[in-house]
Specification:
Largest sheet of chain A: 8 strands, mixed
Number of helices of chain A: 12
Structural class of chain A: alpha/beta
Distance between the termini of chain A: 42 Å
Oligomer: homodimer
Shape of chain A: globular
Largest interface: A-B, 36 and 36 residues
Order of helices and strands of chain A: EHHHHHHEHHEEHEHEEHEH
Helix content of chain A: 25-40%
Radius of gyration of chain A: 19 Å
Chain lengths: 273, 273
C-alpha cells in the first residue's frame, strides 16, 4: 500500500512565469506557423505570433485550449514524444537561462529518493499533459512513464501499410486530471489510495482529502511559494490556479505546509549565481 | 522497457460457459431484486430473475450493458470492491464446483512468475471491468491493482460530512478496453510499448500488432482453446468474441499459438477429478 503521489507544476518543478507546457505550446505555434498561414490573422494564434502580451494574457482558458488542441494533436504519440524532447533540449527558462528540467526542487528529489529507498512507489498526479511529462520524468525524477498520471487527449489506433500501427493524437480532451479529477484519476490509474500526497494549489485539494481519509499513517503536504529571491513568491495566487481553499484545509486539518524560503536550504540541484 | 501485458478472460482464467463478470452481474440482479420491484416485469431483468434462458441468450449487448450499468453503479468504489470479494467468496463455477479464482491457468501463472523473476512488469489488459479485477488480481496472479488496465465506468468524487470523501460509480461508460482500445489503453495507462503480449481473441489483435511493431526482441501469443475434456474446446468461437482475424494474423506473422490440449501438461493449479 506504499503509494505516494506528487503534483508536478509548482510541487516538483517551477511553474513560473508560466506553466512549462504552455510555453512549449506557444513555441510550437511559432514553429508550425509557416504550415498554418491562416494563424497570422486568427486569434489566439495571431497574438502568440506577434508576441502581443496583452492579448495573450487575456486569451483565457478557451484560447489556451485552442492552442493546446492545435499544437498537441494531429501527430502520432511517437512524433509528439520527439517534439517534447527536441524542445526541452534547446528551450531555456527566461530567468534562470537553464533547461526547464533543471528547475526541479532538490528537496523534493531527495524526498522521492528517500521514499523509493523505503519501497514506496512514487507517482506524479498532475493537471499537466500525461504525454508532455512521460518522455522525461524517469531521467529527471526517477519516475517511469507508467507512474505518471495526467490530463490527456483522445488517441486513435490506426493500422497503416506494412503492419505499422500508429496512435494518432486527436484534438479532443479525454481526461482533465485536476481538482476532483485527481482523486478520480488516482482511482482510475492506480486503484489504491495513496498514503502520501504533495501538492501546491487548490487543484490538489481533493487528492489530499482522498489521501487523508484513509486509515493508518498518512502525510498530506503543500508547497508554499514564498521565496522571491531564489524562486518565486506568489503566496496563494498561482499563474492560473490558487492556493486558497486547500490552504484553509491544510491549516484546519494540520496538514504539512512547506515554506520554501524558510524550510528549504537549497531550491535547485544547481548553484544560483 | 520490460513491460508485458496479458488479456484476462480466456488467457489467464476460464471464460466459459460465460464471462465471470457477467455471472457476477446476473447474481447481483438477483441480489438487488427486492430493492427493485420494477425489474419483475422489465427486460432484461425479468429474463434474468425468471432464469429465462432463451431471453437471456438473446438480450444482446444492449441488454448486457443495461445489466452492467444497473449492477455496477450507484455505489462507492469501496462498496463495489466489497461486493466483488463477497461474491467471489461464495460463487462456484457450475462445472468445476470451485471458486472462479481457482480456474486460472497454471502454465500462465508460471509464465507470470518467470517474467517477474527476470524484472519484467506484468500487466493485465482486459476488456473486463477494471474494478471487478483489481480486488483479487494481486492474490491470484501476483499482479497489483496499479498494473491492471480494463474497461471502466465514470466515477464521481464527492466530499461528505466529517471530511469523508467518496468515489461514486456512475452508470456511464468511461473507457472500453477492447480491440483498438487495448493499444490505446496501453498507451494511456502504461505509456510504453510492451515487449510481450498474450491474448486469445480478436479483441486482443491490436494489442498484439502494437507489440509486434516495436524494435528488438518481442513475443506475441494467443491461447487456443482446444481441450474439451480438461477445459473447453471452442476453437475460434468464444462466448461473445471470436478468434478469427487475430488467428489469421498469428499464422501469417508466425506469432505463437498455444494449443491447450497438446501444449499444456496441466491446466489448473488443482487436480481435476
Amino acid at each position: 500500500e506504499r503509494i505516494t503521489c506528487f503534483d508536478n507544476d509548482g510541487t516538483l518543478w517551477t511553474e513560473q512565469p508560466m506553466y512549462v507546457q504552455v510555453t512549449f505550446a506557444m513555441d510550437r505555434v511559432r514553429a508550425l506557423a509557416s504550415r498554418n498561414p491562416q494563424w497570422r490573422t486568427q486569434e489566439p494564434f495571431r497574438a502568440v505570433l506577434e508576441n502581443d502580451r496583452a492579448a495573450v494574457s487575456t486569451m483565457g482558458e478557451k484560447g489556451l485550449l485552442e492552442i493546446m488542441a492545435a499544437t498537441h494533436a494531429g501527430l502520432t504519440t511517437e512524433d509528439f514524444r520527439k517534439a517534447v524532447l527536441d524542445w526541452l533540449a534547446t528551450a531555456r527558462h527566461p530567468r534562470f537561462k537553464r533547461p526547464y528540467t533543471d528547475l526541479v526542487y532538490q528537496p523534493m528529489l531527495e524526498l522521492l529518493a528517500l521514499l523509493r529507498a523505503n519501497q514506496f512507489k512514487t507517482y506524479i498526479v498532475s493537471g499537466g499533459g500525461i504525454e508532455f511529462m512521460r518522455p522525461w520524468t524517469e531521467r529527471v525524477y526517477g519516475i517511469p512513464p507508467e507512474q505518471v498520471v495526467g490530463s490527456s487527449g483522445v488517441t486513435r489506433y490506426e493500422l497503416r501499410a506494412n503492419d505499422q500501427p500508429i496512435l494518432l493524437k486527436e484534438p479532443k480532451v479525454q481526461f482533465i486530471d485536476d481538482g476532483p479529477g485527481k482523486a478520480e484519476g488516482i482511482n482510475q490509474y492506480i486503484g489504491r489510495r495513496p498514503v502520501l500526497t504533495f501538492g501546491n494549489s487548490d487543484g490538489d485539494q481533493q487528492m489530499l482529502e482522498w489521501t487523508a481519509a484513509g486509515t493508518g499513517a498518512r502525510f498530506m503536504g503543500l508547497v508554499h511559494h514564498t521565496d522571491g529571491v531564489r524562486e518565486y513568491a506568489y503566496d496563494r495566487q498561482s499563474v492560473v490556479g490558487k492556493l486558497d481553499t486547500a490552504w484553509n484545509e491544510a491549516v484546519r486539518r494540520k496538514w504539512t505546509v512547506v515554506d520554501m524560503k524558510h524550510d528549504w536550504k537549497v531550491i535547485y540541484p544547481f548553484e544560483l549565481t
